[in-house]
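From the thread on structure requests for the teaching lab: each student submitted one protein with a one-line request. Submission from student K.M.:

"Model Small ribosomal subunit protein bS16m from Aphidius gifuensis, tokens only."
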Amino acid sequence: MPKFPLHAASGTGVFTDWHRKVIRLARYGCANRPFYHIVVMNSKADPKTPPIEQLGTYDPKVNQYNEKLVSFNSERIMFWLGQGNCDISPPVEEIFGLAGFLPIHPRTYIKAWRNRKDIEKKEKKADDEAAEALNNVQSN
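Reply posted by the TA:
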């Protein structure tokens, strides 16, 4: 059983006009198999409360084609952003940036730079080990 009841896909939360809204990820799925809904919620609301509206989904596990799946309703996102009292959480900003809906988030550039550095370190280490093994073979 889920820890909290599943809500209708369209959202069942109570709309209150005076609270700021936030577009964030709401975790669903099972243990060791996360699945997220992109939802609009009150910014002060507990994450387990029903969302005002579900705007899309995000599956962080890669599929057989090595892709992470994202789907969202861009018209409804533009509606909520046009209201003027709606923010976007940083993880959702990254997803929207990678999808081409918003400019690429700066944290995405930082992650890419770190990943490139890690790959360079691993390649250099592998080259050093190969050169050392070659020297050992030639000296024997």
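TA comment: DSSP finds three helices and five strands in the chain. The two ends are 64 Å apart (CA to CA).
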